[in-house]
From TrEMBL:
Domain of life according to the entry: Eukaryota
Ranges where the DML1/Misato tubulin domain occurs: 11-172
Organism: Rhizopus delemar (strain RA 99-880 / ATCC MYA-4621 / FGSC 9543 / NRRL 43880) (Mucormycosis agent)
BP-aspect Gene Ontology terms: mitochondrion organization
Listed GO CC annotations: mitochondrion
UniProt name for this protein: DML1/Misato tubulin domain-containing protein
Pfam families named in the record: Tubulin_3
Length: 336
């Protein structure tokens, strides 16, 4: 790309996915026919509308049968599904409908669901913030039940790097593990379907030693982390950090993360390839997020959100489900 085009991206592109070099199959892009983007009258902004939209779209277009099943049947060895969905608006409900169909059709396969949310909500009014919290609460409870593992995220270019790196071990042609193996490593202590993915990008500056940081990451209290998978790429590691903490599974890949010219200029280094480390964790650190969600539910007057079509009792059941999920992540001496 020429320099002018790259600079133009910084001012004109809203999302990393807006600039996409992938050539999609004609059946890969399936619009939601019941709604239009930026429609101020019929907004696609709450969980219930999303569930209804999935049902209506399947009646109109049969996307599941005509597109998704087609690609699944072409796979030589289908491990499972990666689902990325916004959980701040109606896409959480839309995804619930999709997950029900996936479970009915591919019940034994693994489903890793990434919940995408916008943590910068300062530009929203109070009612919109509360609506988003309700959407997130419904997504956490329902999508985690239907997924093998559920993980929450924020901004797009960094998310792309994190997911691309974290998924490498089970995407390689000579893969040492499968998607099911990766998920089972996070939930073998308890039925913990809520996980956290973090990324260090770039992982280190050139010619610096990464071992002290890796050793620090490895020394984690068992009561805080039930299990963890670390993926590093482009690092020279001459020690087995898994021997420091047996709760961890560690994969080190020689290839650096390639950054195209279109990648946002958000890094201190401007090379075409950078080292990366991701941590995929299941443990007590998720409890704080769930407790925040529970406290938020306590401040909302559910009668103000008639558009969700749930009763007050329905929302109270969601709150109880969040409390039950939170209890799963209590620190427990029996785990030591």
């Amino acid at each position: 790309m020429n320099t002018d085009a790259v600079e133009e991206l910084e001012s004109s592109v809203n999302n990393w996915s807006d600039f996409n070099r992938i050539n999609f199959h004609p059946r890969s892009i399936n619009p939601i026919v019941t709604h239009q983007a930026e429609d101020e009258v019929n907004r696609f902004d709450n969980y219930t509308i999303g569930k209804e939209a999935y049902t209506e779209n399947e009646k109109e277009a049969e996307i599941f049968d005509n597109s998704l099943r087609l690609f699944a049947e072409e796979c030589d060895s289908l491990q499972g599904f990666h689902i990325l969905t916004d959980v701040d608006d109606a896409f959480g409900g839309f995804t619930e409908g999709l997950l029900h169909d996936l479970r009915d059709e591919f019940g034994k396969l693994s489903i890793l669901t990434y919940g995408l949310s916008d943590s910068f909500a300062y530009y929203r009014n109070e009612r919109m913030k509360q609506k988003i919290e309700l959407n997130r609460a419904l997504s956490i409870t329902h999508l985690s039940e239907l997924s093998s593992e559920y993980s929450r995220y924020h901004t797009s270019a960094i998310i792309a790097a994190a997911i691309e790196t974290n998924s490498l071990p089970y995407r390689l042609k000579k893969n040492p593990i499968t998607l099911a193996d990766s998920i089972s490593r996070l939930s073998y202590v308890r039925n913990t379907r809520l996980a956290t993915l973090s990324v260090s990008l770039p992982f280190m500056k050139e010619n610096t030693n990464s071992l002290p940081l890796l050793s620090h990451v490895a020394k984690i209290e068992k009561e805080d982390v039930y299990s963890q998978t670390i993926v590093t790429r482009g690092l020279q590691i001459n020690t087995d950090i898994e021997s420091i903490n047996p709760l961890q599974s560690t994969f080190n890949l020689e290839t650096l993360l390639p950054l195209p010219d279109s990648y946002p200029h958000i890094l201190t280094l401007h090379e075409n390839k950078v080292p990366v480390m991701t941590q995929f964790e299941s443990g007590a650190q998720n409890k704080a997020n769930l407790e925040h969600q529970i406290k938020t539910m306590e401040t909302i007057d559910f009668q103000d959100f008639y558009e969700f079509k749930q009763t007050r009792e329905d929302f109270l059941e969601i709150k109880e489900a969040l409390i039950t999920l939170s209890d799963t992540y209590n620190k427990d001496d029996a785990l030591e």
